[in-house]
Amino acid sequence: MDTVNFRDLSVAETDTKTMLAHADQQSVQRRYEDFLIVDVDGHHYENMSYAEIFEYIEDPVMRQQAKYQGYGGGGIASATSGGGYQNLGGRVTRNPRVNAEVTPKDTHRDITLTKRWMDAMGIDIVCLFPTPMLTLSLTPRPEVEVALARAYNSWLCDKVLSAESRICSTLYLPLNDPEATYKMVKDFAGRKGVVGFTVVSPHYKAVYDNAYMKTYALLEEANLPLVFHGAYAWGGDQSLQLCNKFMAVHALGFAWFNILHMTNWLCNGLPERFPKLRVAWVESGLAWVPFLMQRLDNEWMMRSSEVPLLKRKPSDYMREMFYSSQPMEMVNNREALELTFKMINAETQLMYSSDYPHWDMDLPSTIYDLPFLSEPAKRNILGGNARRFFNLEPVVSELKAKRLAARASS
Amino acid sequence: MADVLVCKDGEIAEGGVRVIQAGEVEIGVIRHDGKYYAYRNHCPHQGGPVCEGIRMPGVLDIIGEGGIFLQQDFDQKDIHIVCPWHSYEFHLEDGVNVCDKRIRLQKFKVVEKDGAVYINV
Questions:
Q1: CATH number of the structural domain spanning residue A43
Q2: Fewest Cβ atoms closer than 10 Å to its Cβ: which of A153, A258, A403, B67?
């Protein structure tokens, strides 16, 4: 009779490293220490730090409201996209359990938790995004969006980005107020770890509005990219509120808002007006891109007079933009996926993203294990393309550096 | 094939899971309704620790006469293993994925004898 080691889950403590132990095994097996891995879309739960963030609200009356009322669900933002049940009635366990995870007091909790999952997956650098505040764009009070965006951005710079070189971010732009959007870039460009700015895609302002041109020009001049981060709107969107399942609103919403803004971006010739402005489309998967390329090219051949700024097919411009990989559609569709990679020039334009800790996260192996990619293509997608897109200084994780040193000495 | 001791009968509480390391293989032993089930703790999707999530009954749509939707209900006869990474679901009884029968967990035989629980690895 053999004896065995065992873990009894009823007494196990919540620990990200244990939860992701299999990801760590993948990292070791695939020798991720041999190359840089950048995750262009990881998240944290900034709601765990609301008490700190609210202190950064500049308006004292709004600050008092936020501290008294909280953020959503009757709170100060009262975003209209509520009703999401992303954790599937308790099936996704890591989010509620993370509240019980023990972290050391001498490092900000967000940094510790983020680095734990990064290390387990073999990720060297992450571009960090918020979670509940991704729906801040839907608050009916534009001044609240501006105030909270400034508070969050200031807090993130002070508490996280300034303290940890492996975490960077593209900061939130409050698009409902074009002047505040411009000022945000003015005030925060150049802060440590700020590698670009984000448009949260569910919003109801047109990206071609002349009011935004000076922001695009400023970003281009500062050599900082613009990221469109997908998300959903539910209760406040007349089309999507026809969905009665979160699966439906998520599948459509995250792609739909990027399809909408990409279409307007192209049909108003913004790539010609700001040819050096790098643009990325994040967290919408990839299947929508070939669809939109075909659709717009077909229309453009018949209606180019309507969009005279476009000198080439819409898909030609789209192939020069950047895309994040997650949630990569990969169920029984290897052939379609390979064609998608070809259509978007994935080897130079696709950037790996995990979306961890969200429910549909992807590990680096989703890219590394694709049989139709060469080793250089895998490494580009897992890190090289992001390094180029964000102008990143490579920082190798301490864990991977140790593995490399151990290999060298053995 | 070797019998590997998991525990004395009753050491795993009802609804509990013990994850054992048998050589290179990690196996989750689940106790549900007094029965033991053993599966490799590896989700065929992205490699998640499938046995470390929760178990939940399958969900049914109840459709009335004329195709009218009435409500949803839990199917207590069909308990699912839910992978904690991405919520891929597998029937507890046989380890088959609930969406695609071609995807299944590796199952191990459980033997109860002399007041102890073993798995055949």
A1: 3.20.20.140
A2: B67
Of the listed ranges A40-44, A184-188, A211-215, A232-236, the one predicted with least confidence: A232-236
pLDDT band at A140 (very low <50, low <70, confident <90, very high): confident
pLDDT at A358: 94
Hey, what CATH topology would domain B3-54+83-120 get?
Rieske Iron-sulfur Protein (2.102.10)
With 60 as the cut, is the pLDDT of residue A341 above it? yes
Chain A touched by B4 (CB under 8 Å): yes
Q: Does residue A135 form part of some domain? A: yes
Structural domains counted in chain A: 1
Q: What integer pLDDT is reported at residue A213 of this predicted model?
A: 98
In-domain check, residue A17: no
Check CB contact under 8 Å for B54 and A93: yes
DSSP string, A234-274: -TT-TTGGG--SHHHHHHHHHHHHHHHHHHHHHHTTHHHHS
| Whether B52 and A365 lie within 8 Å, measured CB to CB | no
Q: Give Cα separations from A311 to A7, A262, B22, B56 (angstroms).
A: 62, 17, 63, 56
CB of A359 less than 8 A from some CB of B: yes
Q: Are the C-beta atoms of A131 and A45 separated by less than 8 Å? A: yes
Beta strands in A320-393 (DSSP E): 322-324, 350-351
Give B87's contacts in chain A (Cβ within 8 Å): 88, 91-92, 359
Residue B72 in this model has a pLDDT that exceeds 70: yes
* Residue pLDDT, tens place only, A385-399: 999 999 999 999 999
Which of B17, B22, B46 has its CB closest to that of A9? B17
- Are B20 and A9 an interchain contact pair (Cβ–Cβ within 8 Å)? no
Å between A121 CA and nearest CA of chain B: 12
Residue-number span of the structural domain to which A377 is assigned? 33-409
Q: Is B101 on the interface with A (CB under 8 A)?
A: no
